[in-house]
Amino acid sequence: MLSLVYRGIRRAAVHSLRTSRGTPPRRFLSTCDGVPLVDAETIFALSSGHGRCGVAVIRASGPASATALRCMAGLTRSLPPPRTALLRSITDPQSKEVLDRGLVLWFPAPHSFTGEDSVEFHIHGGPAVITAVLQALGSVPGMRPAEAGEFTRRAFQAGKLGLTEVEGLGDLIHAETEAQRRQALRQMSGELGRLYQDWSHRLKRCLAHVEAFIDFSEDELIEDGVLNQVDRSVCDLQAEMESHLKDERRGERLRSGVQVVIAGATNAGKSSLLNTLCQRPAAIVSPIAGTTRDIVETALDIGGFPVLLSDTAGLRESPDVVEREGVRRARERVQQADLTLVVVDSSQLPSDAQKAADFLQWYLRSVLPTEEQPETDRFLLVLNKTDLLPQEQRLKLNGELMRVSGLPPVCLISCHTNDGLQDFLTVLHSSVKTLCGDPLSGAPTLTQARHRAHLQQCFTALAQYQRYRDIDLALAAEGVRLALTSLGRITGRVGAEEILDIIFKDFCIGK
Question: What pLDDT was estimated at residue 495?
């Protein structure tokens, strides 16, 4: 009896959702030239960079854009052809004073970035000109300055961009290296969003089939084997998501920068290496041991990949409380690093090459005392001050170290003469590229921490379906629903209407 009541309530809900579709009525504020203005504000802002420049672009979006274009460009009749530049005098709508002479472009809805009527004013980039045009736009009724990110928000709300594409656009604007640009452009093109949309569509289908089986299986309206298809789909999705999550955070690392830390004993030449790499005196260099006590950071572009390079205090025991804190921070930063450059004073190495190799293995363990078996791919051994070694000893040392197993890559350099620096940069670039991966090859990678968090929640929710599949189908369906919600938080698009569409499309229910 309770089952019949439950099914009746669910069917009533389905019917209510099916019949409640429709577009809500739009409200109108006023009219302009006989055309009603939709209840939405028109926003405007400087879209090009601030400061003096040859050309500045001011953009407006919203129902009053056409009015602003007519008032400020002196267009008494029709608007210019869409997406066609027109040279006009830009005037103040109140005083009729000419502010500048520039290009205007008209983008009628829905074929614009925001999906709304939009206009662009391409003017001269002097601060006084920009200020005058912005003030003139502010005097047009129904217009106000845009808030940060508001144009992109409207593009998302109009369905022009998904959330992942919005984030890709933001990353593209802030990209500082070539690899970051490539990754951001790939995400903005929608490739990552399409992957998540495909998973979302498959989850919707799974949920629709389970819901339909719960509601209508007793009426024999559901064909046999529906749940078996759901089982296979859920297993496939779990495998794909698990593979996607096991990316070693390459995309996130490329977006935020590879954390590279310079570590080693005092007076090994760590600060000299930092200054050599960034080509400026970023850190103080002194023959006095323990000069560097705090973390010195600088951002670098290594072959198109972003690197945040950190110089740290020399690792040694010290009675000085300030230096001890510097050493503690240095060890903490090494544990958090993606790549550690372990700098060694090569003039302090044993003259025998085999003994030098044994010393370096011990030295590497002393840099990371908390790790019994350090991952060699996270380290580079940098033997500095090779200009103090005889050439014969350098060659013999280099040859012997290349034959030693268990050591990370070894680079012999001199920060004083720059000898070996180019080879070191080649090895460093290769290591950084491995950590970030190629942004243009393979499947799209995760670029945001929030993507990873929601995908992990999605994966956990699918495990709930597996756990309750043969115990309680309603709880199993709830697991699929939670998975779909978590995935929808990444793309920003999920709703009950889409689930119902699949139910009524795949099963002829309600005939």
Answer: 54
Pick from 179, 61, 180, 57: nearest CA to 113: 61
Question: Tokens 């500095």 map to which residue?
Answer: 384
pLDDT tops 80 at residue 215: no
Check the CA dihedral 319-322-325-326 and report its sign: negative
Q: Would you state the structure tokens that stand for residue 95, as one six-digit string? A: 């005083």
Q: Where are the alpha helices (DSSP H) in 437-472?
A: 449-468
Residues 257, 301: Cα–Cα separation, whole Å: 9
> CA distances (Å), 179 to each of 127, 382, 508, in order?
33, 26, 50
Give the model's pLDDT for residue 293.
77
- Please report, rounded to a whole number, the percentage of residues in the chain having pLDDT higher than 70: 85
The residue with greater pLDDT, 502 or 127, is 127
Contact 341, 380 (CB under 8 A): yes
pLDDT computed for residue 148 by the predictor = 87
CA-to-CA distance for 180 and 475, rounded, in angstroms? 42
* Sign for the pseudo-dihedral over CA of 471, 473, 479, 483: positive
Q: Evaluate if residue 314 carries a pLDDT over 50.
A: yes
Above 80 in pLDDT, residue 394? yes
Q: How many angstroms separate the CA atoms of 85 and 9, rounded?
A: 59
State whether residue 327 is helix, strand or coil. helix
pTM, whole model, 2 decimals?
0.79
DSSP 25-78: PPPEEEEETTEEEES--EEEEE-S-SSSEEEEEEEEESTTHHHHHHHHHT--SS
Residue 171 has pLDDT above 60, yes or no: yes
**363-375 confidence digits (pLDDT tens):** 887 776 555 455 6
Q: Are 117 and 63 in contact (CB under 8 A)?
A: yes
Q: Of all helices (H) and strands (E), which one includes residue 394? A: helix 391-403
| CA atoms 410, 414, 418, 420: torsion sign | negative
Question: Helix or strand or coil: residue 288?
Answer: coil
> Cα 300 vs. chain centroid, distance in angstroms?
19
How far is residue 87's CA from residue 73's CA, in Å, rounded to a whole number? 9
Contact 446, 452 (CB under 8 A): yes
Number of H helices, E strands in the chain: 17, 14
β-partners of residue 87 are 103
DSSP reduced 3-state for 461: helix
- What are the DSSP calls for 200-261, one per residue? HHHHHHHHHHHHHHHHHGGGT-S-TTHHHHHHHHHHHHHHHHHHHH-STTHHHHHHH-EEEE
Strand partners, 145: 44
Torsion angle of C-alpha atoms 209, 215, 221, 224, degrees rounded to 10:
50
Q: For residue 106, how many other CB atoms are within 10 A of its CB?
A: 22
**In this structure, are residues 247 and 445 in contact, taking their beta carbons and an 8 Å threshold?**
yes
